[in-house]
Amino acid sequence: MIKRTLNDIAEMIQIENDLSPYGKKEIQGVSINSREITPGQLFIPFKGERTDGHQYVSDAIEKGAAAAFWQEDVPNPPTHLPIIIVKDTLTALQELARAYRNQLSIKVVGITGSNGKTTTKDMMANLLALKYKVQKTEGNYNNHIGLPLTILALEERTEVAVLEMGMSGKGEIDFLTKLARPDATIITNIGESHLQDLGSREGIAEAKLEIINGLKSDGLMVYMGDEPLLRNYFDSYEGQATVKTFGRTEQNDLYPVNIQQLDNGSKFQVNASEVEFTLPILGMHNVLNALSAMIVAQHFNVSFAEMEAGLVKVRLTNMRMEILQGQNGEKIINDAYNASPTSTQASIELLANLPGYKKKILVLGDMLELGADEERFHEEIGLSICAENIDAVFTYGRLGHLIAKGAKEVLSEDRVFAFDEKAPLIEELKKHVNDETIVLVKASRGMKLEEVVEGLQ
């Protein structure tokens, strides 16, 4: 984490007051939450519409904070405390992170995409940790606040940082990538998330492609080569970065061969190696995520033979293809962290092809932020369900009813159940499961379908 004196900070960012009385005082790390302050941290308050973090500055310092930012337009800064006055506390946080990153001798991998960012980040960190000291984005700290906090949490002896970059609109990835200055970047895919804000898949692609704006000129750009929107862009790319692709098809630099779906993951090989890889994560889409990480790992001189040991140990963040057991012996795949048509379709395909279960049940909820075509997307998901491989479909939410409507076109009505409340859904679902059943649960984060998972356990 950042360890600097207040005099150092005064040289890293623009400040508006005299720090000489406290200039030799050192901060160790930063926090934006006064309730979680640890001794020595720099507390950064934000002035919000409902609450103003400045009212907690004195409390934070009392709890051990070494110093605190104070926004210039907030009246009555305490004169008896180590306060750093800045024009805007959010901007100061970002500029401090930028200055700190520029002082670090570190390699950075930046990852974006509509789906699979966090999974790819976890895989990437595992592979690079075979040779380097690695830190990665924790949780969902991937936006204009989270990424600066992640950078300021980097140890000076860290060799590689794996940074996830999220967005909801244009210009956001551009800001993040120029702050992080990555040596390698990955675009996992282009889906439908944020259609509400960006209007089209073309708009989403343009926003994701901003990641290349901060890539070092001699860096590596890795993207999903099966996506025409990305391939069309890079077919006319004139930059100096090395560009490589991954995907299902042979037109890519790296693609999978000899894939074997297991009940707890996958075994596969790639076109560029004879090594057989074991990935303890379900789904073909996660094999593809692994390929993108493998290209970057190879760029950092990790061999395919070494990667086998790294992939087999990958563990994902909770609620991403998390395998659990229910009260009646059923297996549950908790993939309730987020959902889009692309990722939901991948999850349905996974469940349909999973061996070893006599009964397969889908529990699907609303997919949010899809814009004007949200109803069509939901009905199409229902229509895409294979009646031969899926035994029952349970839906939750207003838009979930449209998934059920589509599903009833391909499954008999007695195999499709639509609910507006979770309690009756859980009660009915329990009647359909036993120790030969597997249940896959997926929806957007706002639907909180992990509560259904908890109801089965």
Automatic annotation (TrEMBL):
Pathway terms, separated by semicolons: Cell wall biogenesis; peptidoglycan biosynthesis
UniProt: ATP binding residues: 113-119
Location of this chain's protein in the cell: Cytoplasm
GO MF annotation list: ATP binding; UDP-N-acetylmuramoyl-tripeptide-D-alanyl-D-alanine ligase activity; UDP-N-acetylmuramoylalanyl-D-glutamyl-2,6-diaminopimelate-D-alanyl-D-alanine ligase activity
Limits of the Mur ligase N-terminal catalytic domain: 26-101
Enzyme class: ligase
Keywords, in A-Z order: ATP-binding, Cell cycle, Cell division, Cell shape, Cell wall biogenesis/degradation, Cytoplasm, Ligase, Nucleotide-binding, Peptidoglycan synthesis
Presence of keyword Nuclease: no
Catalysed reaction, written as an equation: D-alanyl-D-alanine + UDP-N-acetyl-alpha-D-muramoyl-L-alanyl-gamma-D-glutamyl-meso-2,6-diaminopimelate + ATP = UDP-N-acetyl-alpha-D-muramoyl-L-alanyl-gamma-D-glutamyl-meso-2,6-diaminopimeloyl-D-alanyl-D-alanine + ADP + phosphate + H(+)
EC number, as in UniProt: 6.3.2.10
Principal subcellular localization: cytoplasm
One Pfam entry name: Mur_ligase_C
Gene Ontology annotations for the cellular component aspect, listed alphabetically: cytoplasm
GO biological process: cell division; cell wall organization; peptidoglycan biosynthetic process; regulation of cell shape
Residue ranges occupied by any Mur ligase C-terminal domain in the UniProt entry: 319-445
Domain Mur ligase central intervals: 111-297
Similarity comment: Belongs to the MurCDEF family. MurF subfamily.
Protein function: Involved in cell wall formation. Catalyzes the final step in the synthesis of UDP-N-acetylmuramoyl-pentapeptide, the precursor of murein.
Name listed for the protein in its UniProt record: UDP-N-acetylmuramoyl-tripeptide--D-alanyl-D-alanine ligase
Name of encoding gene: murF
